[in-house]
Design a protein that fits this description.
The complex is a heterodimer. By secondary structure, chain A is an alpha/beta fold. Chain A folds into 2 domains: 34-59 and 159-271, Rossmann fold, CATH 3.40.50.300; 86-157, no CATH class. Chain A has helices at residues 48-56, 87-90, 97-108, 113-126, 142-154, 172-188, 200-206, 236-239, 241-260; strands at residues 4-17, 20-33, 37-41, 63-68, 71-72, 80-83, 160-164, 192-196, 209-213, 220-225. In chain A, α3 (97-108) packs across α4 (113-126) and α4 crosses α5 (142-154). By secondary structure, chain B is mainly α. Chain B has a single domain (52-244), classed as MetI-like fold (Orthogonal Bundle), CATH 1.10.3720.10. Chain B contains 10 helices and no strands. Chain B has helices spanning 5-23, 35-47, 50-82, 84-97, 106-113, 117-141, 145-153, 158-195, 201-210, 214-242. The chains are: A alpha/beta, B mainly alpha. The A-B interface holds A 56, 58, 75-76, 78, 80-82, 84, 86, 89-90, 92-95, 103-104, 107, 136-139, 156 and B 144, 146-147, 149-150, 152-156, 164-165, 168-169, 171, 244-248.
Amino acid sequence: MGAPIIELDNLAKVFAVNGRALTVFDSLCYRVEKGSFLSIVGPSGCGKSTLLKLISGLDAPTRGAVTFNARTVRGPAKGMIYVFQQYTKSIFPWRTVMQNVEFGLNTAKRLPRREARDKCLEYIRLVGLDGYEHYHPYQLSGGMQQRVCIARALICEPDVLLMDEPFSAVDAMTRAILQELILKIWETIPVTILFVTHDVDEAVFLSSRVLSLSRAPATIREDLPIDLPYPRDQIRTRDDERFTVLRQRLFSSIFLQEKSGAPAPAAAPPA
Amino acid sequence: MKKRWPGFVLFVSILMAWEYASASNLIDQVSIPRVSAILSSWIAGVEDGQLLAALGPSLERIFAGFGLAVVVAVPLGLLMGSIAIIYRLLEPLTEFVRPIPAAAYIPVAILFLGIGNEMKIFVVFLACLFPVLLNTYGGVRGVDAVLIDTGRTFGVSHVKALCQIVFPAALPSILTGMRISLGIALIVVVVAEMIAGNSGIGYYILDMQRSFRIPAMFAGIFTLGLLGFMINFVFLKLEQHLLRWRGASVET
């Protein structure tokens, strides 16, 4: 394994729910390889999004630590950007596409006006929104809004992009197109992507590695390298026999847990 | 605009019915003069400058008091909305002071500030303060957590987040508070002018009533209606312009 960019060291998170302690995970250890595309899957409520929040520094662990570029994460770390599932709430509706992307750039570095403009246009083009620079978010479809959020994140040139079910709120066709887009970006620019999803197909299609978590308190059930060749393609890759095998393996493991496990903690009847 | 005509027709019909009722003495023509008499008195008042002379000081008081209230309430509301300790410190106080009608402060204000402009501006200021304050901190507290986290993941400072994220996100609510305040300012300034002093549209209306120039009194009241309508209209246009990024038109 190459150099780890992120390390989880005995990570634990305990929430207080109705006065009772809910352990999301107890002592999670893992190393994320630099430049990888790592997806995190698992049954609903297993703490996938919580894990991503802890890595990003938006939330703090109860015990243990996250290390990013050999530094302990305390609060939102420079070099990691979180892309939210709810793009309608994350995009700045009062800013145009250009101004949204500009926001990201301004948080990373100060450039002369002209250079800044060119750089924004470059990233707008990267996510395929050229021609829409001066549109406001309300004039864009959901998929386009998420593209804006992705461009706004990428323009900071982060080492790590943390994506929390970024495509789960768009329709199936748009999702397929966005999946190819994010792959193209990942292959073009040097960025490590951590991708939380509940969609096993999506995880296998995109990732170089898939991490499968068990239900809470979550442990790593599987750490599966996806040895399908890049560049991947919605038609050809999904047709590949290995794709089906990997997908079946992950799906059955999660599905059996969902089916056999106790009801999710939130819906648990009073003891 | 195109759906306005039914309301306009009703408005004109009421004026015509009033005109007829007064002209044929169905209602007391002395207390409620004919609309045509009120209108000609209004035109005379505009021409000889009396109405405008009365309106000037009132407008000055409204905008001075309102402006001061916005300048104080918006920053204070932003702080209350985003810093928990300031909210907990000030919220009980504002909740207690807020329900007291601003007109009730007039006697107190007269004691300290006399019956001149300062008193009236102060009372308008107090009346405008709370709607703007409440709507500002309400708006700030209503900003979605995802939006706040977006600012955090980009590593922006608290001050920058307040200016670039929280303020624009709370702006619709702030503007609503400002619009409510302007309506209240009009009420309060008229009350203050009627209670004390010798200028302004409120004083004008009372003065006309005392000197039995009833059509001129109604002309003053009509002027208030017109003024309120115009202030609201202009403010709505401003609001639509500032919130054009919301796409759908602002409610009217």
